[in-house]
Specification:
Family: Belongs to the triosephosphate isomerase family.
Largest sheet: 8 strands, parallel
Protein name: Triosephosphate isomerase
Radius of gyration: 17 Å
CATH architecture: Alpha-Beta Barrel
CATH superfamily: Aldolase class I
Subunit structure: Homodimer.
Shape: globular
EC number: 5.3.1.1
Number of strands: 8
Strand order of the largest sheet: 7-6-5-4-3-2-1-8
Pathway: Carbohydrate biosynthesis; gluconeogenesis; Carbohydrate metabolism; erythritol degradation; Carbohydrate degradation; glycolysis; D-glyceraldehyde 3-phosphate from glycerone phosphate: step 1/1
CATH topology: TIM Barrel
Length: about 250
C-alpha cells in the first residue's frame, strides 16, 4: 500500500462478544506482530477492558455517558474509562443510534464529554439503505457531522476520528465498492474542511462496513481511507491481524 499522509488506525469493535480467553489470545498475538506504522485499538465490552495490558495495546470503549457520575444505573463515565486505561471511545455507532435511539445531538454531547476528559472519540456516521437509495447520503452524513462540529472547537476537531459505516453494509456481508467508500470519505473530509481546513487534512476517517482480510487492502488503498472500524472480523485473531497488516 502506498505511504499514507495520516497515520492509519484499525479499531476492533467486539460489540457484545468476547471473553477473557479471547483477551489473552488477542493481546499475545498483537504483542508479537510488528505493526509499527499504525495504531491498533481494541474495543471490547466494558467487563473485559481491565483484562488488557495497555502498555502493549491501545484500548477503547464502545460508549460513555454524558454524566460524570451519580445515580445513572448501567452507565459508565469518561473517568471510569480512563481509570482502566482507555484512550479511545466509539460514539454514535449505528447500533446505538437504532437500538438506544441516540440522536445526533446526544452523540455530539458525548463527543464533547470525551474530548474534555482527554479521550479520543471515534465518531460513527453513515446511512441506512433507504437513504442511499433516495440519493441523500451526503445530506444525511452532513447532519451527523454538523451536530458535532457545532458543539466543539476547531482545535478539538483535530482530536476526533470519524468512522463511516454504511448501515446497509454492517453484518450483512455486503461491502460498498472502493469507489463508493472513497466518494463518501472524500465528502466527509471536504465537509469538515468547512469548519477547519487543518482538521480536514489531518483527521483520520475509517471505513466500517464489513471489512475483512480479503478486501481490506483494496479499501485501505483509497486516498481518504485511513483504516477501519472492524466488527465481526475483529473477533478472529488471524483475520484481525491480516486487516491490521493491510493498513500497516
Amino acid at each position: 500500500m502506498a505511504a499514507k499522509i495520516r497515520r492509519p488506525i484499525v479499531a476492533g469493535n467486539w460489540k457484545m462478544n468476547g471473553n477473557l480467553s479471547l483477551v489473552k489470545t488477542m493481546q499475545d498475538a498483537l504483542a508479537q506482530s510488528q505493526l509499527d506504522n499504525m495504531d491498533t485499538v481494541v474495543c471490547p465490552p466494558f467487563t473485559l477492558l481491565s483484562g488488557f495490558d495497555t502498555q502493549q495495546i491501545k484500548l477503547g470503549a464502545q460508549n460513555l455517558s454524558v454524566y460524570p457520575n451519580g445515580a445513572h444505573t448501567g452507565e459508565i463515565s469518561a473517568a471510569m474509562l480512563q481509570d482502566v486505561g482507555c484512550q479511545y471511545v466509539i460514539l454514535g455507532h449505528s447500533e446505538r443510534r437504532a437500538e438506544q435511539f441516540e440522536s445526533n445531538e446526544l452523540v455530539a454531547d458525548k463527543v464533547k464529554v470525551a474530548l474534555t476528559a482527554g479521550l479520543q472519540p471515534i465518531v460513527c456516521v453513515g446511512e441506512p439503505l433507504e437513504v442511499r437509495q433516495s440519493g441523500k447520503v451526503f445530506d444525511y452524513v452532513a447532519a451527523q457531522l454538523d451536530a458535532v462540529t457545532q458543539v466543539i472547537s476547531q482545535q478539538d476537531l483535530l482530536e476526533v476520528v470519524v468512522a463511516y459505516e454504511p448501515i446497509w453494509a454492517i453484518g450483512t456481508g455486503n461491502t460498498a465498492t472502493p469507489e463508493q467508500v472513497q466518494e463518501v470519505h472524500a465528502f466527509i473530509r471536504n465537509h469538515l474542511g468547512k469548519s477547519c481546513q487543518e482538521a480536514a487534512a489531518k483527521i483520520r476517517i475509517l471505513y466500517g462496513g464489513s471489512v475483512n482480510a480479503a478486501n481490506a487492502a483494496q479499501i485501505f488503498a483509497q486516498p481518504d481511507v485511513d483504516g477501519g472500524l472492524i466488527g465481526g472480523a475483529s473477533l478472529k485473531v488471524e483475520d484481525f491481524l491480516a486487516i491490521c497488516q493491510a493498513a500497516n
